[in-house]
């Protein structure tokens, strides 16, 4: 099989595995969650294939893949869902690459140390979100308690 076909096969298999693992079918929809799935998958397989190949397999123009690459940092920073999607996409890409003996095209492939650093950052963000939710719940429970106490005083 020639190199271009190998890369097409690789992206196709990674996309199938991603969709199966996420229990989600990527469509042409422009709804945010679908766009984030497409961007995560495109960025996850990007070290292993060109934007032309990724676009061809995903049924998109290569310029959309370039756009997803430019938006990656923003999505990663602000969307907890995207972080999960991207992590899953990268894991699928690595699994398919290992199964096919497919090497990254460039040195953009993340090392274990880089993945660990990113994972620690995700955990830190998740802890911040968890803490905020706990504080919000504590505040709501205090407000409910005070309302209940006031209503008991009136009786």
Give an overview in words.
With 155 residues, the protein is an all-alpha fold. It has two domains: 3-106; 111-155. Helices cover 79% and strands 0% of the residues. The chain contains six helices and no strands. The chain has helices spanning 3-22, 32-45, 51-58, 62-78, 80-100, 112-154. Helix 2 crosses helix 4, helix 3 (51-58) crosses helix 4 (62-78) and helix 4 crosses helix 5. The longest helix is centred in the last third of the chain and has 43 residues, at 112-154. The chain is elongated, with a radius of gyration of 21 Å. The N and C termini lie far apart (83 Å).
Number of domains: 2
Oligomer: single chain
Order of helices and strands: HHHHHH
Tally of alpha and pi helices: 6
Q: Biggest β-sheet: count, sense, barrel? A: none
Beta-strand content = under 5%
The radius of gyration over CA amounts to 21 Å
Structural class: mainly alpha
Coarse morphology: elongated
Helix content: over 70%
Contiguous uncertain segments of 5+ residues: none
Average pLDDT number? 87
The end-to-end span amounts to: 83 Å
* SS elements, strand count: 0
């Amino acid at each position: 099989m020639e190199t271009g076909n190998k890369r097409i096969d690789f992206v196709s298999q990674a996309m199938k595995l991603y969709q199966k693992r996420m229990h989600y079918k990527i469509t042409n929809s422009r709804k945010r969650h679908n766009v984030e799935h497409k961007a995560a998958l495109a960025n996850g397989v990007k070290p292993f294939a060109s934007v032309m190949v990724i676009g061809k397999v995903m049924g998109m123009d290569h310029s959309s893949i370039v756009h997803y690459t430019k938006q990656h940092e923003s999505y990663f920073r602000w969307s907890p869902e995207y972080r999960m999607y991207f992590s899953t996409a990268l894991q699928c890409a690595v699994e398919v690459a290992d199964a096919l003996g497919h090497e990254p095209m460039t040195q953009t492939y993340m090392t274990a140390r880089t993945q660990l650093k990113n994972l620690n950052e995700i955990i830190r963000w998740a802890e911040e979100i968890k803490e905020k939710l706990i504080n919000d719940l504590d505040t709501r429970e205090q407000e409910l308690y005070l309302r209940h106490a006031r209503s008991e005083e009136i009786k």
